[in-house]
Amino acid sequence: MTTTPPAHDRRMLEALICPVTQGPLTWDAERAELVSSMAKLAFPVRDGIPIMLVSEARAVD
């Protein structure tokens, strides 16, 4: 599995916002997740598809 999305996927990921706070997300390449520091949640990206469901997110410190 590749941890760095292609350039076009990266632009799409950068356009997403946190579904809880409406704030920005950062890409964690090591875990293949989009992280909302404001909500303290990490949303998984599976097969290039961001899973933006709170029920699928994991809590982060």
Summed up:
This protein has 61 residues and is of the alpha+beta class. Helix content is 15%, strand content 28%. The mean pLDDT is 87.
How would you explain this protein's 3D organization?
It is a single chain. The protein is α+β, with helices and mostly antiparallel strands and 61 residues long. The protein has a single domain, classed as N-terminal domain of TfIIb (Single Sheet), CATH 2.20.25. Helices cover 15% and strands 28% of the residues. It contains one helix and five strands; from the N terminus they run αβββββ. It has one helix at residues 7-15, and strands at 26-28, 33-36, 41-46, 49-50, 58-59. Strands 1, 2, 3, 4 and 5 form a five-stranded antiparallel β-sheet that branches. β3 (41-46) and β4 form a beta hairpin. The longest helix is centred in the N-terminal third of the chain and has 9 residues, at 7-15. It is globular, with a radius of gyration of 11 Å. The model has no long low-confidence stretch (mean pLDDT 87).
Radius of gyration: 11 Å
Low-confidence blocks of residues: none
Largest sheet: 5 strands, antiparallel
Can you write the helix and strand succession as a string? HEEEEE
Strand content: 25-35%
Give the N-terminus to C-terminus distance in angstroms: 25 Å
CATH architecture: Single Sheet
Total number of β-strand segments?
5
Mean pLDDT: 87
Report helical residue fraction: 10-25%
The number of helical segments is 1
List the domain count as a whole number.
1
Given the helix and strand composition, which structural class is it?
Answer: alpha+beta
Q: Might you state the CATH topology name?
A: N-terminal domain of TfIIb
Main CATH class: Mainly Beta
Overall geometric form: globular
